[in-house]
């Protein structure tokens, strides 16, 4: 009957604590407090979206003239005039491309080049 006389010490384990304890003996809530942030920050995102700003804003040879004109005329009227000027310039580029036989891809490249040059010169300040 030696097999039936198993003592309680044969089934003992090194676990001496409650079900809420961890291996190191710390409480579960203490571990969670150490790993989880104490406060979750909810606020405005770091970047609100793509910005349509000019990299060279305020730079360029014509930038001071553009800024003074915008201050005199007003921002709304200035943007209307600027839009008309850009549309007219795009039409001139389109007519030029038609006269030399350039395709639409080349025309689009010329319009992009005109925009980059306008940015560098300060027209889009």
TrEMBL record:
Top-level taxon: Eukaryota
Name of protein: Proton gradient regulation 5
Transmembrane segments: none
Gene Ontology CC annotation, any one: chloroplast
Biological process, per Gene Ontology: photosynthetic electron transport in photosystem I; response to high light intensity
Molecular functions (GO terms): electron transfer activity
């Amino acid at each position: 009957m030696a097999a039936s006389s198993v003592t309680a010490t044969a089934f003992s384990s090194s676990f001496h604590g409650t079900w809420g304890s961890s291996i190191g003996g710390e409480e579960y809530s203490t571990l969670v407090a150490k790993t989880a942030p104490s406060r979750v920050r909810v606020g405005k995102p770091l970047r609100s979206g793509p910005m349509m700003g000019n990299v060279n804003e305020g730079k360029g040879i014509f930038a001071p003239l553009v800024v003074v004109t915008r201050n005199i005329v007003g921002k709304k009227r200035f943007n209307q005039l600027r839009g008309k000027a850009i549309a007219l310039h795009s039409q001139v580029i389109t007519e030029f491309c038609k006269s030399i036989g350039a395709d639409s891809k080349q025309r689009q490249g010329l319009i992009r080049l005109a925009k980059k040059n306008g940015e560098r010169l300060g027209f889009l300040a």
